[in-house]
Write a structure and sequence with these properties.
Structural class: alpha/beta
Oligomer: single chain
Bound molecules: adenosine-5'-diphosphate, magnesium ion
Shape: globular
Largest sheet: 5 strands, parallel
Number of helices: 22
Distance between the termini: 56 Å
Order of helices and strands: HHEEHEHHHEHEHHEHEHEHHHHHHHHHHH
Strand order of the largest sheet: 5-6-7-4-8
Helix content: 55-70%
Amino acid sequence: MTDDTWGRVQSELQRTIGKDAFKTWIEPLELSAIENGVARFLVPTSFIGNWVSRNFGDDLLRIFGRNDAKVHRLDFNVRSTRAPGPAKSQQRADTSKSNLQAVVNEAANPAAAGGGNGGVPGSPLDARFTFDSFVVGKPNELAHAAARRVAEGGPVTFNPFFLYGGVGLGKTHLMHAIAWELSRRNPAAKVVYLSAEQFMYRFVQALRFKDMIGFKEIFRSVDVLMVDDVQFIAGKDSTQDEFFHTFNALVEQNKQIIISGDRSPSEMNDLDDRIKSRLQWGLVVDLHPTDYELRLGILQQKVENHREMYPDLRIADGVLEFLAHRISTNVRVLEGALTRLFAFASLVGREVTLDLAQDCLADILRASDRKVTIDEIIRKVADHYNLRLSDLLSARRTRTIARPRQVAMFLSKTLTSKSLPEIGRRFGGRDHTTVIHAVRKIEELKAHDNQIAEDVELLRRMLEA
Ligand code: ADP
Ligand code: MG
């Protein structure tokens, strides 16, 4: 590995991720060494390391591989503060002395997955995915309680434990949390966590290298087997078969099996019937789509977590509520939005306001738009207050009409991504300052006037349903 290689990796990466992203995130990295397949980087702040690892980790591994560098993991350490730099970043580096060990999933790199290192195969666990960092709310409380119970170890009562739910609702997070907790309570236990895809990959490798016996021995010697995203092997017949045998062998030895999927076993059409019925023997629980309260709770927790890194970060009132309302049920999307917002705010050094959020997250907001339209809002509000549409859009200013009109403008601003001038136009050609006034007025009233607060809440629920 020479400087030259790093140069080539950099230029290829720049082509992949674009100039801007490259400048912001990759340029600040300093490659300090590549040893035993681990590329070590020095970074100015742990935030940058985290960001690179999460967003560009896979790209980096792939490109290193293509340039003949045998790298299967990236490691980021915060550079000591000696480096000269702008006062701000200096300060930030000070507040994040602790080393960051960001582990990039080795599964992304075939070289690592193929390397027979003799140990029990599995994927590294994400240090952030613990029970402590998992926010509990109505939609996930049952799954969480069950996961806690399984994580206590003890006699195996639910076998298998099957956890299912839609994308980004916390299945992997809970699986890792269970694995951490089990290993903490019993460090000697062989807890193996891997994705179904990796299970298949290893199975195929074993076939190719005629080492089925080794494969069977390894998987049958574990104490706890965790397989994530089992839907992946549905329809892949020989893998399913092998999975079934491994499963049975472990159940017979009374070893705990924990499995996740994107839907319930009975809904997995391509899954072998024998496996389906086996999966239903144990405990099957699901993660429901998040609700507003859970999303807000998660956002608040993430903000607290970032507080250490950015003591100066200021977030205007209402921004988190806005995000919790507007971003879909997928927590991954929610987190991505927040991370981008923080990165952006810290780069430009400004308070995070509603406007900044709307600007910076326009694409995400658009994608998860619940497609509430201004027309719909006007209709529902008119209905609710027993007014005619024409009244709502007219120039009349009597209270009984003006107030509902303000409610409708407020809802248009908070539930759609339309701009203020656009909203003004749709309400009978009003000026954008009128819309601003309406939004402020309703915000103020909501705090003191229960009737208004209830009306707004009810309308919001109806519109978002
Ligand atoms: P899944 O495996 O169901 O697709 P993940 O477990 O990968 O979803 O979750 C996506 C992201 O959302 C992860 O970063 C995870 O930490 C986060 N997340 C999901 N649910 C919660 C929760 N209840 N509290 C905190 N973070 C959560
Ligand atoms: Mg997952």
